[in-house]
Amino acid sequence: MSSQVLVEAPGVHRVEAHTPREPGPGEALVAVHAVGICGSDREVYQGNRPEGYVRYPLVPGHEWSGTVTAVGAGVPGSLTGRKVVGEGFRNCQVCDRCHAGETTLCTAGYEETGFTRPGAMAATLTLPARLLHVLPDDADL
Questions:
Q1: Which of 38, 82, 126, 128 has its CA 20 to 30 A from that of 116?
Q2: Alpha-carbon gap, residue 141 to 83, rounded angstroms
Q3: Residue 15 and residue 131: Cα distance in Å, rounded?
Q4: Is 70 contained in some domain?
């Protein structure tokens, strides 16, 4: 059985069964190999993250590595089987800030893996394939 960590509310968490979400158009499904814990994850758990920058209940985990196991429509099949890491910010790519390369200042609203969207403290992670960075085949995950 695969599992995930769910932070239901500040200070309240549980380990529960995880069901992978098949990738939709433009998405990839990643088998998570490793996930880091940083200060912002601690803020999520303690409830110190600023309002609007976390959405409970939440599967945390924004620093991770893994292997692509499936891709959705519009994503090259050659990505399957590749070792990857991924960006957390889910910018719109069309606003003025995104076009200026200031993607963390996207005006479409804040969305980030592990804070407002499911993170990598789970057996798998489904996210936009455009956020992935392919690692060398001999990379140590």
A1: 82
A2: 8
A3: 27
A4: yes
